[in-house]
């Protein structure tokens, strides 16, 4: 481990408690097992709550880059070093803790993730589901999916990755006990779950839904 990484990671975890209640211990442990910097490229934009963005560059300013990666901010990232299009957002640690706590994921659960993104959340899902779990992640953008595939391979985790229409899920890998999605779940995702399954999604504010008798009951966090 890099000599400065442990204290940066602990500072990031402590910072989560400044924006929400402290993350449950199992989520904290997953965050320690899956360092965020594995999923942030050399160039990025640190986003603030008012829509502002500050560029970061690991080659030009390594300390600034490390500070940003282990801050509490979301980071927009380009697909590659030559791209000017920032198509992927690595979510803030507190948002990640929100989603994972609502999902209430346990070892052995089968999980559908809608939107792989950088792969950071995917890797955390794999850690929480354990070796006996099954994580399937569907990404609609082939270029984003390829970056995530490389990130996940380097991190040593092996989810089942699908490039395709994420709104359709992946029924052949179901049924799922948990679904993590970027927005309120459409019916195709619910149809691929077991009774009592939990679906967590939402744009800006997470929604937790429970599938019962073919219906979805939900509430805002």
Give structural notes.
The protein has 221 residues and is α/β, with parallel strands linked by helices. It folds into 2 domains: 87 residues, no CATH class; 127 residues, Vaccinia Virus protein VP39 (Rossmann fold), CATH 3.40.50.150. The protein has 7 helices and 11 strands. The strands form 2 sheets. The protein has a 7-stranded mixed β-sheet with strand order 7-6-5-8-9-10-11. A 4-stranded antiparallel β-sheet has the order 2-1-3-4, with helices on one face. Strand 8, helix 7 and strand 9 form a beta-alpha-beta unit.
Profile the largest sheet: 7 strands, mixed
Top-tier CATH class of the largest domain: Alpha Beta
- Secondary structure category: alpha/beta
Number of helices: 7
Strand count = 11
Strand order of the largest sheet: 7-6-5-8-9-10-11
Give the assembly state of these chains. single chain
CATH topology of the largest domain: Rossmann fold
Radius of gyration from the CA trace? 17 Å
Provide the domain count. Answer: 2
Helicity range: 25-40%
CATH architecture of the largest domain: 3-Layer(aba) Sandwich
N→C terminal distance = 35 Å
| Pattern of helices and strands | HHEEHEEHEHEHEEHEEE
On the 0 to 100 scale, the average pLDDT is 87
- By CATH, the superfamily of the largest domain comes out as Vaccinia Virus protein VP39
* Low-pLDDT segments: none
Beta-strand portion reads: 25-35%
Shape: globular
């Amino acid at each position: 481990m890099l000599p400065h990484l442990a204290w940066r990671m602990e500072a990031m975890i402590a910072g989560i408690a400044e924006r929400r209640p402290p993350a449950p211990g199992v989520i904290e442990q997953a965050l320690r097992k899956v360092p965020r910097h594995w999923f942030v490229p050399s160039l990025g934009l640190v986003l603030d709550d008012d829509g502002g963005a500050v560029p970061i560059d690991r080659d030009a300013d390594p300390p600034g880059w490390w500070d940003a990666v282990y801050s509490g901010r979301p980071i927009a990232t380009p697909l590659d070093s030559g791209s000017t299009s920032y198509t992927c957002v690595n979510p803030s640690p507190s948002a990640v803790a929100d989603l994972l706590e609502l999902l209430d994921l346990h070892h052995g659960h089968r999980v559908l993730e809608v939107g792989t993104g950088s792969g950071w959340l995917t890797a955390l899902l794999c850690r929480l589901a354990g070796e006996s779990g099954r994580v399937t992640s569907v990404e609609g953008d082939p270029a984003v999916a390829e970056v995530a595939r490389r990130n996940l391979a380097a991190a040593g985790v092996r989810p089942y990755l699908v490039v395709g229409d994420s709104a359709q899920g992946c029924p052949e890998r179901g049924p799922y006990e948990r679904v993590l999605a970027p927005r309120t779940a459409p019916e195709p995702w619910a149809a691929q779950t077991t009774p009592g399954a939990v679906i967590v999604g939402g744009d800006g504010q997470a929604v937790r839904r429970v599938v019962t008798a073919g219906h979805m009951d939900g509430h805002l966090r």
